[in-house]
Design brief:
Largest sheet: 7 strands, parallel
CATH class of the domain at 13-200 and 235-260 and 315-327: Alpha Beta
Radius of gyration: 20 Å
Shape: globular
Number of helices: 12
Distance between the termini: 44 Å
Number of strands: 10
CATH superfamily of the domain at 13-200 and 235-260 and 315-327: NAD(P)-binding Rossmann-like Domain
CATH architecture of the domain at 13-200 and 235-260 and 315-327: 3-Layer(aba) Sandwich
Length: about 350
């Protein structure tokens, strides 16, 4: 079913979690490419907000005629099969991404992530939509055994349950992706998985997510010192391109694609924030690791980052560059675009 020519325009694509930071961009790119989109919401009250966010960025405002909405919940069976009816493909982006990586109840994160993924693939099977593209994460790749030989982790690698960095979010993405591959094999579905790093980049509206919340926290100078954390970052525009490229080509079926453009530390992000907002007091001093560990005893939000202090989770995006043709935007540019968007919104 999948084709590589630009003329392939599915009658309808189900895009789950359309209110999300990444899904906003994917919806925009799908509509501008001529696709029809059915976006899932948890409340129909958000439909107007999504339309308003997309409208100024569309090549033609009439594209909104090809956008419709459906109610779905990651934790409930209701409506999934009906939502997928008439769709040729499903892009499943919806998944919890908490700011606190070690919540009191990990199942509050893991359960919806795994359950929603299984529901999406079963709905695809029931509705005859063979093509599925799943948004996973480098979190499902980078928190496992060292591959050895000095090579970075890549699509061959998987995060493991007992790894020190295997917090609730890591487990949610890892278990959800494994469940997706199992379900795809069982149901004979054409699955491609995109594994983005820490997603930054321009906002389409006054939106956000955990990654944007981290950038906003830096911009507002809420922390007197910064932890020794480095992310493999990626621009939201490139992650969206990866989803569309995966959808277009049959050669991507059965493949995982790590998407990251390079490392970006909290200190470097703060430096960029100071350049973009010279009138604000934005600390850029790095906290010693012993101090963060001490504070983590009293601050649950810090407990989740302790295992990754001073550690770079290097992953390779060579496959995405070669097979999806993506020339990734540098991480510094992605961060700069995030700060500029937040400032333009008065945040």
């Amino acid at each position: 079913m999948a084709r590589t020519d630009a003329a392939w325009l599915p009658d309808l694509i189900l895009l789950t979690g359309i209110t999300g930071f990444l899904a906003h961009r994917i919806a925009l790119d799908l509509l501008n490419a001529g696709h029809a989109v059915r976006g899932s919401l948890r409340s129909m009250d958000r439909a107007g907000t999504v339309r308003d966010a997309l409208r100024p960025h569309l090549d033609d405002p009439d594209c909104l005629e090809r956008l419709e909405f459906v109610l779905l919940d990651l934790s409930r069976d209701d409506g999934w099969t009906e939502a997928a009816k008439g769709c040729e493909a499903i892009l499943h982006t919806a998944s919890p991404f908490p700011l606190e990586q070690r919540p009191k109840d990990p199942q509050a994160v893991i359960g919806p992530a795994v359950g929603g993924t299984v529901r999406a693939l079963r709905a695809a099977k029931a509705a005859g939509a063979r093509r599925v593209v799943l948004t996973s994460s480098t979190a499902a790749v980078a928190n496992g055994p060292d591959p050895g030989g000095g090579r970075p982790r890549d699509e061959r690698d998987w995060s493991t349950e007992g790894h020190p960095g295997a917090n609730a979010y890591v487990l949610s993405k890892t278990r959800a992706e494994r469940a997706a591959w199992n379900e795809a094999r069982r149901a004979d579905l054409d699955l491609t998985v995109i594994n983005p790093g820490f997603v930054l980049g321009p906002l389409l509206a006054d939106e956000g997510g955990t990654s944007v919340a981290v950038a906003e926290r830096l911009l507002k100078g809420r922390d007197p010192m910064l932890p020794d954390l480095t992310f493999e970052a990626v621009d939201v525009r490139d992650v969206s391109r990866a989803h569309l490229a995966a959808l277009a080509g049959p050669s991507t079926v059965g493949r995982r694609y790590v998407c990251q453009s390079g490392p970006l530390s909290f200190v470097e992000m703060a430096r960029i924030a100071r350049e973009e907002a010279p009138g604000r007091r934005i600390p850029s001093r790095q906290a010693p690791n012993w101090l963060v560990r001490l504070l983590a005893r009293f601050d649950p939000a810090l407990k989740g980052i302790v295992p990754t202090l001073g550690r770079r989770q290097a992953v390779s995006s060579d496959r995405a560059r070669a097979e999806l043709g993506i020339d990734f935007i540098p991480p510094q540019e992605a961060a700069r675009a995030t700060f500029r968007a937040l400032l333009a919104l008065g945040r």
